[in-house]
Amino acid sequence: MKTILVDDEYWALEGFEQECSGEPEIEIVGKFMSAEDALEYAKDNLVEFALLDIQLSGMDGVHLARKLRKLYPDVIIIFLTAYKEYLEDFIDMKADYYVLKPYTKKDVMDILERAKLLSGRFKKRVSIRCFGDFEVFVDGKPLVFSSARAKELLALIVDKRGGTVLHRPAYDILWECRPYTNEMASVYRKVLYRLDGFLDENGIGDILIKTTHGRALNTDKVDCDLLDFFKGDPDAREKFGGKYMSQYSWAEETLGELIAISEWKGDDIE
Question: Residues 211-228: pLDDT tens digits?
Answer without folding.
Answer: 999 999 999 899 999 999
